[in-house]
Write a sequence for this structure.
């Protein structure tokens, strides 16, 4: 530790009871916070930071060098010693864009485990911004419609929030550090570097489904790395935990940066134009005259989820609600039958809960079934001849707040089993087949798309799943549809679904 310049805000003189640690392997630094829960709040006792250039290596060379790995491992060793001094036994270590995009990430993660005993979680696209958004959802800032954005060193996240729930989510692999590294060499080759930068950012942002003209948002809530640097240069003051950055002041700062009229450290100067280009581009999606920029730290958020069970429970509930809201929004954009999808979701949930002793699938995975039900006819208006395949592709290519990349793939596979068999493990294939069988059965119960069933009862017997339904119309088509999917259900679960129509002349007993 003596040969490393680690910034620390506290002297480590004694152990701290029930302390936890959160470590982040970022694009430009290795950071760690030490936290403890007190009766009234979660306190951070120490914050350590060790500068690294992992992002620069990955964004220019595509991989992390052996020398950088040794340096990272040495810094991690020092951090683990700090954890020991604090008596930390529980920690969370995660990596963001640089390690995620490194071609040799598996080797780096493996070596950190072998050399240091450190278990590193590599956050997928969207998971970093999701942690940030979790600190904003449920607050007055997101009570109405707003555009949320996270500008990171290697990625940009954007999400539409309505009444405290994310309904659209997307992310770009284009943070300010990556952007500067990618185009930086052009700065010495042309006097029009700023124009090239703007053109590249504009072209890249055309890929996200939040284009101006589709919808304008009156509030932009933006967070990100080096936010305090921009705020200071704009002369903004922190108030109630947030900065207010006016559009005019940001534009003027960008103009001064283009004309090289600012006196800044070399590293900051190289990052400022890309940062401002991304900030101003994000503002184009809104009618807001200012950016609301809350002061947030991903370390603090991760620590709160570790130390406060109620916050973790709220986080998971928000993710589930967001995933289904994003599914509903995507289905609406593609003109899917919303009423039918909701009925199928309801039936699928009933079937999932009633057959739990047969499938043994956790409650979290039920969310995948619900999203699949909401999306199962997504591709009908895209390719009627191959609707299932079109649906599969649309789900796989979309972003859902609350679902990671693996979960989105599994959701697509539930709708169209067999499409990704080669890339699934045996365990994943079994999971998707189990849920797909329930989805097919739920879809059969509304085969007419007319919502005929008024009452549905399920009874699991030794050799059959008895489905008793009462409708306001004849249910012959639904019975036929259940019979058609019965062989697949029986193959997966070992019981055969049997459909019994309850006479419409008899009212259900209370």
């Amino acid at each position: 530790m003596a040969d490393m310049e680690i910034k620390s805000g506290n002297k480590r003189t004694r152990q701290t009871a029930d302390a936890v640690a959160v470590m982040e392997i970022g694009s430009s630094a290795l950071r760690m916070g030490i936290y403890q829960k007190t009766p009234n709040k979660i306190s951070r006792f120490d914050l350590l930071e060790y500068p690294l250039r992992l992002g620069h290596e990955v964004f220019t060379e595509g991989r992390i060098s052996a020398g950088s790995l040794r340096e990272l491992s040495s810094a991690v060793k020092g951090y683990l010693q700090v954890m020991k001094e604090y008596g930390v036994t529980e920690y969370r270590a995660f990596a963001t864009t640089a390690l995620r995009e490194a071609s040799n990430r598996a080797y780096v993660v493996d070596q950190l485990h072998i050399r240091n005993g450190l278990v590193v979680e590599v956050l997928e696209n969207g998971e970093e911004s999701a942690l940030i958004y979790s600190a904003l959802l449920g607050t007055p800032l997101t009570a109405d419609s707003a555009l949320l954005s996270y500008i990171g060193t290697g990625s940009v996240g954007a999400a539409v929030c309505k009444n405290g729930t994310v309904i659209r989510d997307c992310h770009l692999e284009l943070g300010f550090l990556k952007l500067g590294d990618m185009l930086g060499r052009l700065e010495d080759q042309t006097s029009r570097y700023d124009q090239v930068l703007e053109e590249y950012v504009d072209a890249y942002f055309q890929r996200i489904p939040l284009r101006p003209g589709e919808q304008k948002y009156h509030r932009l809530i933006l967070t990100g790395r080096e936010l305090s640097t921009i705020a200071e240069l704009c002369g903004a003051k922190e108030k109630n935990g947030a900065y207010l950055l006016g559009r005019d002041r940001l534009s003027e700062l960008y103009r001064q940066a283009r004309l090289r009229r600012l006196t800044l450290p070399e590293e900051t100067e190289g990052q400022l134009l890309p940062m401002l280009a991304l900030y101003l581009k994000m503002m184009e999606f809104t009618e807001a005259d200012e950016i609301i920029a809350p002061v947030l730290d991903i370390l603090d958020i991760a620590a709160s989820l570790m130390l406060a069970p109620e916050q973790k429970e709220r986080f998971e509930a928000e993710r589930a609600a967001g995933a289904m809201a994003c599914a509903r929004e995507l289905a609406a954009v593609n003109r899917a039958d919303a009423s039918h999808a909701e009925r199928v979701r309801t039936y699928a949930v009933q079937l999932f809960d009633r057959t739990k002793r047969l499938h043994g699938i956790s409650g979290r995975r039920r969310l995948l079934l619900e999203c699949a039900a909401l999306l199962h006819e997504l591709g009908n208006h895209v390719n009627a001849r191959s609707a299932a395949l079109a649906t599969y592709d649309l789900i796989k290519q979309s972003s859902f707040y609350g679902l990671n990349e693996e979960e989105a793939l599994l959701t697509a596979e539930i709708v169209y089993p067999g499409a990704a068999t080669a890339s699934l493990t045996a365990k994943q294939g079994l999971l998707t087949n189990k849920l797909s069988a329930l989805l097919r059965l739920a879809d059969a119960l509304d085969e007419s798309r007319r919502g005929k069933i008024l009452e549905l009862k399920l009874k699991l017997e030794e050799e059959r799943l008895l489905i008793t339904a009462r409708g306001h119309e004849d249910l012959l088509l639904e019975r036929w549809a259940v019979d058609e999917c019965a062989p697949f259900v029986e193959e997966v679960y070992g019981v055969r679904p049997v459909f019994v129509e309850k006479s419409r002349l008899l009212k259900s007993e209370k």
About this structure: The CA atoms of residues 99 and 139 lie 32 Å apart. Residues 1-6 have pLDDT under 50 and may be disordered. The radius of gyration is 26 Å.
